[in-house]
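Researcher: Structure prediction, please.
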Amino acid sequence: MPDAAPQRSDALKNREVILQVAHDALTESPDASLNSIAKRAGIGPGTLYRHFPTREALILAVYQHDVDRLIRSVPEILATRAPLDALRHWFTTLTTYVRVKHGLGDALHSDAAQKAIGETHAPVAAAIGRLLDACERAGEVRPGLDPDDVLLLLSCLWRTPDTPDGAARAGRLLELAIDGFRP
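Model: Predicted structure follows.
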């Protein structure tokens, strides 16, 4: 099968706008409708549906876009924060992004959702590895922490409720885990 034709610049711009608006809308309300997202993005529903034919497709694209951006942010975060603070910040942001994905509910078990989740695992683990390496070089965590183990352990963060009490609990859990990472 031949590669898909490259998207026009206006189509790429529309896609980026849709993804950012959808991220904001879904963060505010996991039940935001596709039509409300299109309106907020200043495009017609047809444009949104051409890019994302289903709610699941949009939410998965938002999740993928957010995680890709977070993975690419590791060097900047490490340049502007102490390594352990960078790790804290990065996981807190990841938690927010994964919660958007949880808006899929039962659709998380679809083939498309499993594929999107699977595609992000290795890059996320690699980003965690870079953060842990920086923490280890700074003497803030013990040597040899496995990024996959840290990811699995900290997956509890996005299982906390998206409420002020849930955020406080996630913060406590993160600190508890970090205490266990220390040398």
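Model: The mean pLDDT is 87.
Researcher: Thanks, that helps.
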